[in-house]
């Protein structure tokens, strides 16, 4: 649905925000773009949407060049920006209907009603925007982006400032749009949302795409597990006979932590051997639990590796 080829952006002050970015986003997927502040996420979205001119490279939206054929390309895109940029004194209905008109679309009250109802805004349709909460205002931004029935929806930090309940409802809307065939690209600082929602994840660092991977494959490939063994009696040090297991003493000697790769059978199979060795040296285990590394752990690791 979107193809980015050799994209670079250097601003007038010499700052290079994007460096030779190549990226392909499939039709109907949810793609999460992660990166620290200043990594180039918003600049990349702005270039694809036609709000910022690239220094070099090109962007194709469903085969339409977003510069040479910008009307066709932009008509396929809906954008939910980070900033709340609504007109305070207009009503919800009027601002969403106006956004549809900006794309040259004829009036379609039925479509506007459908969008407002899906975002739980129907009861607020006659309210002025200044009367709405921050979460509701952000929903209005999404409604504006959907007003012309785009095939691609960009969500730039869509749940910033939104409470937990509204956030969950909003993601249900996003899933519904994906089920209807809408391609969704989101940036978020809530990494657990990307882990739960995205089909694929891209990581951008200093203007460069450093990784693009299927979410589950990424967790499988880079994720690790920790086995924490809570001891009946504390230890002052790891016994020398257990040194080969790479155990780390924790919780002031009350726990031993064993890290392993769950994707490698030989790592997992050593757990039984570890327990046998513990018993042999008289270390008794009171309880144990495992922890799978999260996408946040992986993300932090990737960013630190490239510093």
The H/E string reads EEEHEEHEHHHEHEHEEHEEEHEH
Shape: elongated
Number of strands: 14
Largest sheet: spatial strand order: 6-7-8-3-9-10
Name the CATH class of the largest domain.
Alpha Beta
The radius of gyration is 25 Å
Tell me the strand percentage band.
Answer: 25-35%
Full CATH superfamily name of the largest domain: P-loop containing nucleotide triphosphate hydrolases
**Which CATH architecture of the largest domain?**
3-Layer(aba) Sandwich
> Helix coverage percent of residues?
25-40%
Characterization of the model:
- The chain is an alpha/beta fold and 307 residues long.
- The chain has helices at residues 41-48, 70-75, 92-102, 109-118, 134-146, 164-179, 191-197, 215-222, 265-280, 295-305, and strands at 2-10, 16-25, 30-34, 56-61, 64-65, 77-80, 152-156, 183-187, 200-205, 208-214, 225-231, 248-250, 255-260, 285-292.
- It is built from 10 helices and 14 strands.
- The chain has 2 domains: 2-220, 3-Layer(aba) Sandwich (Rossmann fold); 224-293, Alpha-Beta Plaits (2-Layer Sandwich), CATH 3.30.70.
- It is elongated.
- It starts with a strand and ends with a helix.
- The model has no long low-confidence stretch (mean pLDDT 85).
- The strands form 3 sheets. The protein has a 6-stranded mixed sheet with strand order 6-7-8-3-9-10, with helices on both faces.
């Amino acid at each position: 649905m979107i193809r980015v080829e050799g994209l670079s952006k250097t601003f007038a002050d010499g700052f290079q925000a994007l460096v030779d970015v190549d990226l392909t986003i499939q039709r109907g997927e949810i793609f999460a773009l992660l990166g620290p502040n200043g990594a180039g996420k918003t600049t990349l979205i702005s270039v694809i949407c036609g709000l910022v001119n690239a220094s070099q490279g090109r962007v194709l939206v469903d085969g339409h060049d977003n510069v040479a054929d910008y009307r066709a390309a932009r008509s396929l895109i809906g954008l939910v920006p980070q900033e709340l940029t609504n007109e305070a004194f207009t009503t919800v209905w009027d601002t969403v209907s106006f956004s549809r008109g900006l794309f040259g679309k004829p009036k379609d009250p039925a479509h506007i009603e459908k969008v407002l109802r899906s975002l739980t805004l129907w009861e607020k349709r006659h309210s002025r925007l200044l009367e709405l909460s921050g979460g509701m205002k952000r929903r209005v931004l999404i409604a504006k982006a959907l007003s012309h029935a785009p095939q691609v929806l960009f969500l730039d930090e869509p749940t910033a400032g939104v409470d937990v309940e509204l956030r969950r409802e909003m993601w249900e809307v996003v899933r519904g749009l994906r089920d209807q065939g809408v391609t969704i690209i989101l940036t978020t600082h809530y990494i657990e949302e990307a882990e739960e929602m995205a089909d694929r994840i891209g990581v951008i660092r200093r203007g460069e795409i450093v990784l693009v991977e299927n979410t589950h494959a990424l967790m499988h490939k880079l994720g690790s597990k920790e086995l924490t063994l809570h001891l009946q009696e504390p230890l002052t040090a790891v016994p020398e006979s257990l040194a080969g297991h790479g155990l780390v003493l924790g919780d002031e000697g009350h726990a031993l932590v064993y890290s392993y790769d769950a994707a490698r059978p030989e790592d997992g199979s050593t757990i039984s051997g570890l327990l046998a060795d513990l018993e042999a040296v008289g270390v008794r285990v009171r309880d144990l639990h495992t922890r799978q590394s999260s996408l946040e752990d992986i993300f932090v690791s990737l960013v630190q590796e490239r510093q």
